[in-house]
Design brief:
Blueprint lengths: L1 H21 L24 E9 L8 E8 L4 E8 L10 E10 L2 E8 L4 E7 L2 E8 L4 E9 L2 H11 L3
Antiparallel strand pairs: 1-2, 1-8, 2-3, 3-4, 4-5, 5-6, 6-7, 7-8
Length: 163
């Protein structure tokens, strides 16, 4: 019994440290939004990204949803969030749209429509990932999106456009 309690406490501390260390990746306060960045997205960001988000450390209730993000060449995006199928799922379906801003490997989605003011994700290969606060239930969620077709599809698209 003591061993289980120790493991539970250790897991809670490790999860707390992870959330605290990565919290700046997904802050949603418009007051602290990144300012010095590039307004147009990098060409390898253009296309459709699919993935999901989930509540970190959910227990009795969950906050899970699927996400489809489309980044356009003009630097705008649209996204839809669809509630997962769990019984006690607190996620809310929502549509988002706005502009994409890049700064190094950080991709910020500045939302002009919907409840999320902005979300910053890390771009690594054909993956976008990070942490954010879901405004529906005000808790930290982990987001991971994969580029549809991988980067080779994006390169094929650019080649067909003569780039």
């Amino acid at each position: 019994m003591l061993y289980r309690t120790f493991i539970a406490v250790l897991s809670a501390v490790a999860t707390g440290a992870l959330v605290a260390g990565c919290a700046e990746l997904g802050a949603t306060s418009s007051a602290s939004a990144p300012s010095a960045a590039v307004a147009a997205p990098a060409s390898d960001l253009v296309g459709i990204w699919r993935g999901d988000f989930g509540w970190i450390g959910a227990f009795f209730y969950e906050d899970e949803a699927t996400v489809v993000l489309q980044i356009k060449e003009d630097g705008t995006f649209t996204a839809t969030v669809a509630r997962g199928t769990g019984t006690n799922n607190l996620a809310k379906p929502v549509s988002l749209s706005g502009t994409v801003v890049t700064h190094g490997n950080r991709v910020t989605l500045r939302n002009s429509h919907g409840p999320w003011a902005w979300v910053t994700l890390v771009h690594s290969g054909d993956t976008l990932y990070g942490l954010a606060i879901d405004p529906a239930i005000e808790t930290t969620v982990m987001i991971k999106l994969e580029h549809e077709g991988g980067l080779t599809a994006g390169a094929s698209h650019r080649a067909s456009q003569g780039r």
